[in-house]
Amino acid sequence: MSEEKDEEKQGEEAKEASSSKETPVESPTSEGDTVVSAGSTTLDSERSIVSTPEAAADPEREAKLKAAAEARAARAAAKEAANVEGAPEAAADPEREAKLKAAAEARAARAAAKEAANAGGAAAGDAAVDPEKEAKLKAAAEARAARAAAKEAANAGGAPAGEAAEPPPPPPPSPKQPQLDAAAQLIRSLVHEEALEDAYINEMNGHMPTFIVKNEHWYATAVQLKQHEELHFSYLRNVSGVDYETHLEVVYHLVDLESRRELAVKIKADRSTPVVASATPVWATANWNEREIYDLLGVTFPGHPDLRRIMMSDDWVGHPLRKDYEPLDSEV
């Protein structure tokens, strides 16, 4: 019996030893450290010490946390500085400050310009003038001065500065001046001494001899211009009317078909009641030309055989080529 009890006791001890060997035992240690032992042996040499969370954290995350903390601190400092008098300038955004300053200066400039305009102050007005506009005006003035100087130098024939410029020589007489003088003398002797208001050479129109005949002497002058043997302007090339606003004018362009001489005759008419004696009895080609001038300018031609509108309808109001004409439709 004792032997059986001894065997059972040894079996139980072996079982307990096996159980204690398989199950690890944790022994409490200081905070943050864990000591692991197996069986009855404590593994002090293999103690595993787990570092604190701050040491084991991700470096990138640590950097972000640090940046956020710094940002919070900066905002708190800015807020505290804003509450303290005199600190806004140091805590404000420099770019925003510059914009605010520029806006304030612009408002001040506009206010000064407005005040100068209202007060009529020349000094303030000069200070508020746009520099770019001033530069353009100055450049334009300099260009005008340069052109004037060049023109003066050209007229002076390139005379050196300081020397008195000689007057330009008179232009040579027109080759048609003798023709003009002869015709003018005949008209004055045949019609009336004061029949011509003026006689001149129109150089811009091929040195055209031109008469301005007084209205009351026009018809008699027309007869002499066609029938006199020394004049003999048998062909009426054209008739035109002109509105000069101060007066109306009718212009007859005459040609001597044999000698190819040409002559222009102008007759002035009062603008309120324009009347010019018709030349149709002398030159038949004046018929439709005078009707057109009557239609579009309102000049009446006494002695015309059929004076009526030629372009506009008979019931048309006004004369479209007069400068005071008001059309029914302003867009037409």
Helix and strand topology:
Elements: H1 2-22, E1 25-27, E2 33-38, E3 41-42, E4 48-49, H2 53-56, H3 59-83, H4 88-91, H5 94-119, H6 122-128, H7 131-155, H8 177-190, E5 196-202, E6 208-213, H9 218-227, E7 235-243, E8 248-256, E9 261-269, H10 286-297
Parallel strand pairs: 6-9
Antiparallel strand pairs: 1-2, 2-3, 2-4, 5-6, 7-8, 8-9
Helix pairs in contact: 5-6
Question: Characteristics of this structure?
Answer:
single chain; 332 residues; alpha+beta; Beta Polymerase, domain 2; 5-stranded mixed sheet; 4-stranded antiparallel sheet; 45% helix
Structure overview:
This protein has 332 residues and is of the alpha+beta class. It has a domain at 177-271: Beta Polymerase, domain 2. It has helices at residues 2-22, 53-56, 59-83, 88-91, 94-119, 122-128, 131-155, 177-190, 218-227, 286-297; strands at residues 25-27, 33-38, 41-42, 48-49, 196-202, 208-213, 235-243, 248-256, 261-269. The strands form 2 sheets. It has a 5-stranded mixed beta sheet with strand order 5-6-9-8-7. Strands 1, 2, 3 and 4 form a 4-stranded antiparallel beta sheet that branches. The longest helix is centred in the N-terminal third of the chain and has 26 residues, at 94-119. It is elongated and about 165 Å long. The termini are far apart.
